Amino acid sequence: MDALGAWTGWAAAAVIAMAALLPLFTRLSLKRRAAPDSKPTRIHVIAGIAAAAFALVHTLAALPALGGAVAIEAGNLPLAAGAVAFFVIVAHVGVGLQLRDVKLRDRVKKRRLHLTTASIIVVVVSVHAVLLYLATRSLR
User: Fold this and answer.
1) Cα(56)–Cα(44) distance, rounded to whole angstroms?
2) Could you tell me the residue range of the domain that residue 104 belongs to?
3) Helix (H) or strand (E) holding 31
């Protein structure tokens, strides 16, 4: 993969990790969940939207490298995992924005869906990164 594609991918992964860790640290420090309209939740929302934006930038930056040696060596599975990750990130942001509503009726279901999509993101992004890394190593 070209340097821009790799750099934007790792930057997206870092922003995703930061967005994921914010509510965990908030919950540990407050000993409860943050309110939907609280400052920690606003920061988490901003980080989540930034993560989606970074994922889009990575997708666009990686397009020119699709015909390169790493993409050919890696095959379709890492590209499919990346595509799934991108769409799940968009869905995750949508569910998260619904959770901002203080009067949301099915908050528990939405929270579980938000956690499920976050878990899927971690798995498919990991598969995407590991397979591309292995393809890069095999070309050396």
Assistant:
1) 18
2) 3-138
3) none
